[in-house]
Structures are given as structure tokens and as C-alpha cells.
Amino acid sequence: MNHAKNTSTKPAAWKVSLATMVAAGTVFTQAACVGGPATPKASASECPVHVNEDSATLRIAYLGSPLQDLYVYDQGYLDACLPNVDVQWARYPTGQDIVQGFAAQSVDVGGLGSTPAAKALSSPLDLDVLVPRVNTIVGSTEALVAKNAKSIKDLKGKKIAVPFSSTSHYSLLKALEDAGLDPSRDVTITNISPDKLPAAWSSPDIEAAYVWDPTLQTLKEHGGHVVLTSEDVAKLGAPTFNVTMVSRPWAEKHAGVLDTWLKLQDYVTTKAADADPGYVEAVSIQSGMKVEDGQRQVTGQEYIPGNRQPEELESLGHALYDTADFLSQQSEVSGAHEEKKYVDATTQWPFYRDTFAKKSADQKSDDKR
């Protein structure tokens, strides 16, 4: 039996924008990433779900935030649950970099925000991907922090840093719009990735930044105070999400492997939702955060269990369309498709629909006895 190998790749960084390369017909072969998880994983734990003996290669892209995928890595669950799968982990600085990985056909499964997922499904990218799971609804773990400004209106005429094409970017644009500020005229928005933001924060030119943990915590420790959070922006009618995105061709070829991944996500989500101390410690260490900071990150999001996935996935499809439509108005994408395309991307994978339809039918049968 061949045991899974958890490795990471370090392809070269991109030189030009993804949209430019797609428009030019460039063939993608690599995508920027920053290596594997922060620390080695533990020895393989006992598989908490059914062991899948399928053979495959599974290339996982993830961000550095302490989310469910890091606990799956830390506990060695894929070694135990997918013993014949060659598993490769790669950490990327932003969701847009993960989208580049999908475009380069170097990523099979990725955890990223809803904004880059919406862009992946929109023109000019139009990637052949599915979004089969809502991992979290973003809350206080993403925020706009400023050095001196007390309100978003105080940022008029100032420079704001944000990773472009991210959930933070989308939330910033919506917050500016709600405050009556024109993002193209009233402020200067500069694209800085989370891994480079701490160094850039010392520049007197930058007054504020919208970003997620662990970078958010670093900025707060160096003079930044929270102006508003993504939870506040959600109340304005613009929620953002952390989601799982997969290559459709890979998923159709390795359906059982994907379903095992989703089962593990459901199992780990129960620990995340309860802020289990072992979970908090593990994901904090893997993301390079202090445990107390990781605790705030874990409790600052809403986790979606398996039985809520069918409903939330349909809602996500509509939210992805709304996001794409707004980004089109901001010239961030060249065009949003019909709403059905986004809803199909979130609802076509049958795992949750079939699983919970069966459970509902079994429950009704038991009730009749």
C-alpha cells in the first residue's frame, strides 16, 4: 500500500496580471505560492470518517488563516483516510493566487474567499470549477484598520492598502460606497498582499488597510485600530464567505476522494464551531499565530455544519452572482454571467444534497414506526 505524501511546491511568482495572460492566450504552468504549512504535521491520526482506498493525486491550496483545512493537515487525517492518494499541500498568499493556481491547472482543491471564487466563475477567466462547500461566513476576522481615522469617511483623500480580488477588497469597496465615497476618486486604493502588508504598514503614505488574520492582528499590534469589520459590512447586505473550490474535471474523475475531503471538513467543523481547545491550539500553531490570537480568529467566524450546507450553498450561489455583478460595475471583472451559472456552481455537486435528503427520508421513516 502506498501511503500519502504531503509535500509543497514553490513555483515562480507571476510577472503580469492573470487577466492579461488569459486575454493573451498564455498557457499557465505555475502559480505563485509561499510553500507548505508552518510546521510539520503530526503522525497520521485514526481516520474519523470512512477510509477511502481510491488512488489519486490531490493538490490542495490554502491560505494562512487558522481554518478547518489546517486542522486536517495538522492531524494527518488525509494520510489515514486516503492512504493511496498522493497529497500535496501549498500555501498561497491570497485567494486570487489560488485562482491563478486553478487557471494553471496546478490546484485541485482550494480554500479561498467568495470574492476570488466569483471572479473565477466570471469573464474573462470562466474557469471550469465548482464550489461544493461553504466553510465559514466571515465576521470580525477581516477588518479595516487605520492609524488615525476614526470613521470610514475620515479616509477621504487617504491611501488604503488591500489585497486586490479578495473578500477584503470587496468589503472595502462596499463600505466606501455605503459611506458615499467613490473608490476611484475619493481615496487611493493600493494592492498589497497580506505577506507584504506588515512591512508596508510603516510607510507614512498608508493610512489604512483592509485584511484578514493573522496579518490583521499584526497591524493592530503596530498602531492600527479597527474602523469596521466584515461582520459590519455583512449587515449592509454584503456578506463574504470562506469556501471550498474544486476543479470540475478533477472532481468528476475523483468523486470519492472529494467526498472524503468534504466529510473531513464536516467533522472538523464541529470542533471549530465549539472552539475546541485542541483545535484552536493546532490551527494557531500551523498559521504562525499566538494561541490567544487564534482563539479570536476561530470565534470570529460562523461555521456551517453539513446539515446546513444545501441551503447555504444555494444562498452562496446568489451571493456570488451579486458579488460578480458589483465587481463588474467596478470594472474588476469584464462581465457577470446569468445568475444560474453561479447557483449551478454551488449546487451541482450532489454530496450534501444526497446525504441530507437521505437522512431526512430515513428520519421520516423512523417517525412512522
Description:
The chain has 369 residues and is α/β, with parallel strands linked by helices. The protein folds into 2 domains: 56-138 and 240-354, 3-Layer(aba) Sandwich (D-Maltodextrin-Binding Protein, domain 2), CATH 3.40.190; 142-236, D-Maltodextrin-Binding Protein, domain 2, CATH 3.40.190. 42% of the residues lie in helices and 17% in strands. It has 16 helices and 11 strands. Helix 14 (309-329) packs antiparallel against helix 15 (339-347). The longest helix is centred in the C-terminal third of the chain and has 21 residues, at 309-329. The N and C termini lie far apart (45 Å). Residues 1-31 have low confidence and may be disordered.
Question: Can you tag this structure with a few keywords?
Answer:
369 residues; alpha/beta; D-Maltodextrin-Binding Protein, domain 2; 2 domains; six-stranded mixed beta sheet; five-stranded mixed beta sheet; 16 helices; 17% strand
Concise overview:
42% of the residues lie in helices and 17% in strands.
Could you outline the blueprint of secondary structure elements for this entry?
Elements: H1 18-23, E1 56-62, H2 68-74, H3 77-81, E2 85-91, H4 95-103, E3 109-113, H5 114-121, E4 129-138, E5 142-146, E6 159-162, H6 167-178, E7 188-191, H7 197-200, E8 206-212, H8 215-221, E9 225-229, H9 230-234, E10 241-247, H10 248-253, H11 255-273, H12 277-287, H13 291-299, E11 301-303, H14 309-329, H15 339-347, H16 351-368
Parallel strand pairs: 1-2, 1-3, 6-7, 6-8
Antiparallel strand pairs: 3-10, 4-10, 4-11, 5-8, 5-9
Helix pairs in contact: 2-11, 2-12, 4-5, 5-14, 12-13, 14-15
